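Acetylornithine aminotransferase: structure, please.
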Amino acid sequence: MSDSMQVDRSDFDRVMVPNYAPVDMVPVRGLGSRLWDQQGRDYIDLAGGIAVNALGHAHPGLVEALTEQAGKLWHVSNVLTNEPALRLAAKLIEATFAEKVFFANSGAEANEAAFKLARRWAHETAGPDKHEIIACTNSFHGRTLFTVSVGGQPKYSQGFGPAIEGISHVPYNDLTALEQLMSARTCAVVIEPIQGEGGVIPATDAYLQGVRALCDKHNALLIFDEVQSGMGRTGKLFAYMHSGVVPDILTSAKSLGGGFPIAAMLTSDRIAQHFGVGTHGSTYGGNPLGCAVAERVLDIVNTPELLQGVDARHQLLAEGLMALSAEFPVFEQIRGRGLLIGAVLTEAWRGRARDIQEAAQRHGLLVLQAGPDVMRLAPSLVIPEADIREALQRLRAALASLAG
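Here you go.
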């Protein structure tokens, strides 16, 4: 088998475990906010690899950082440390509330570390009874057995044997429900500042402030899952910065590496000390390649110009979507922040998010869904204005084909 071996979408069903259902084209090249498939057809990418490609495809700065590091050092394990990991950790600490960083490979791994750390902290400071974790219904925190149990979507967690105990769920943005459930046994409350998979639903500032107060009252940790909302996605480096509510632990992945697999868990000295030597680990976590790329992503994203540009792009997309909805009564609400956008379908279009996704692809446009009733957009944070306008034209053609 060699690079010249001919493969296409039909090979997926032959060689891959059938847990995915990828669309019927295979992208082979990307540049900026465009992708090209095996037939040379171009697509405007408003999906961003599900909020991962923060700087688009083949960004020259990231290509440079990766290739430069690739010529130096790839992997040494955590028996040794490395310069890119130390630089990236220092920059994340400087830019956030955090005092300590743990690196992993994915959002699920970062959340796994966060949940384990919360339970370890509670066990060592209050004893074994303080182990309960409260999350929100329709939340999503990853696919490991622990993180999928914390996630509030039973369709992902059922059928894998007994769930991990001590986890309960309350409705999102419902402070009263949380207050009634919290007790001295609560070790952590886990929240996405914007529910991504659950429909692109932002938490209100008042809710986050109330959750923080309840955590303080019950001596529980507040964990923010910013795997999807972090790294400039909302117009600030992290979404918690909009509300002024500071978590005890924050997880980041997706956009952190701009397409290279890397994740981080950020926390304070006070909590980090409960992960002593040998308590947790990751063979690849903090590898030099991922950290070199993520350091460059952070340098580029964490600037006033880029973050202000995210807000401007949000405005352009939101206005364009509402203009389309005036022509085709398809979107009843545009929600989210920055370039994590949920276009909520009207009653007449309810349940047709996948139809829209497939029609858009036929018209050279990649979008996402967040459940059957929400079209989700998570494009590059630096997508050119011209690409946004062209994307809206392609979406208009897709909607026209469906309205037919």
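Notes: The longest strand covers residues 331-337.
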